[in-house]
C-alpha cells in the first residue's frame, strides 16, 4: 500500500493519493458523461465502484451499460439508489435544473453529493443550503488537468466545503485524480477553478498570438515551441496542450481540434471570471479582452472546437 502524503499550504491542504480503492462509499451515481465525465466515470468503474449513470445522451448510456454500469431512466431513481452522486454538468442553469425539489427530496439521508462542474460559486452555495435541509452532505470539487488527466486518473480537485465531508469523499476523488486541495468553505473550489481558467484562457490566447507571429516570420513551429518550453514563456498550453497541429501527439490540435475542452466552455468560464471581478470591483482588463477574443471566435462557428483552435483563428486574422 502506498502512503498518503499530505502537504500543508498555509491553512489549506494538498493531498497526493494512493491508488488503493476504498469501499466506504460503494454505490455511486454519475450525471454528465461528456468529454471529462465520461473518462472520470470509467475510472471509478476501474477502481471497483458500483456505478449508475444518467445522461441525456442515450448512446453514451448504452456504452456504459455494456461495460457493466447500471443506467437510470431519471434523476430521482438515480439519487435514491446510491450513496454518492457526482455531477459534471456544463453550466450553472443546467445544474440547477437537474436538482429540482423533487430530486433533492429523493436522496437518502446522509448521502454525499460531489459537484465537479465549473459554475459560479454562488450556485454551489445555493445547492449546499438545499442539500443541508434534507441531511445530505455537499462539496464543490471542480477539476483541472484536461482530458489527458481525466483519462489517466491524474486530475487535480479544488474542493470547497467542510473538511470532514471532503475526507469522506476522498476515496472517490482519488479514484479519478492524484491531488486534492481543500480551498475553504462552500464555493471556494469554484473560486479557485475560475481563477485557474482565467489564467488558462489568457495564456492560451497569448501563446497563440506569439506562435502565429513566429510562424508568420518564418520560424519552424517545432523549434519555436522548444525555445518557449525552455524559456520564461513556458506554460501548460505550450508544453502539455500545444495548439499547433503536429507538435504534440494525443492533443486536440493534432486531431482536427476535436473538442477536449470546447471553446464555448472557456468562454463560459471567462464570463464567470469577469462577472466575479465586476462584483468585487475589479476591471479584469485582460480577462475582458480575452473574453471578447473567444466570443468572436465562437461566433465565427468554432464554438464546438477545442479552445486551442484560437491558434487557427488568430493565424487567419493575421493574414
TrEMBL record:
Classification via SUPFAM superfamilies: 6-phosphogluconate dehydrogenase C-terminal domain-like, NAD(P)-binding Rossmann-fold domains
Gene Ontology MF, one: NADP binding
EC numbers, comma separated: 1.1.1.31
InterPro entries registered for this protein in UniProt: 6-PGluconate_DH-like_C_sf, 6PGD_dom2, 6PGDH_NADP-bd, HIBADH, HIBADH-like_NADP-bd, HIBADH-related, NAD(P)-bd_dom_sf
Pathway in which the depicted protein is active: Amino-acid degradation; L-valine degradation
Active site: residue positions: 193
Residues covered by the 6-phosphogluconate dehydrogenase NADP-binding domain: 27-184
Signal peptide: none
Similarity field: Belongs to the HIBADH-related family. 3-hydroxyisobutyrate dehydrogenase subfamily.
Name of the protein this chain belongs to: 3-hydroxyisobutyrate dehydrogenase
Taxonomic source organism: Panstrongylus megistus
Lineage: Eukaryota, Metazoa, Ecdysozoa, Arthropoda, Hexapoda
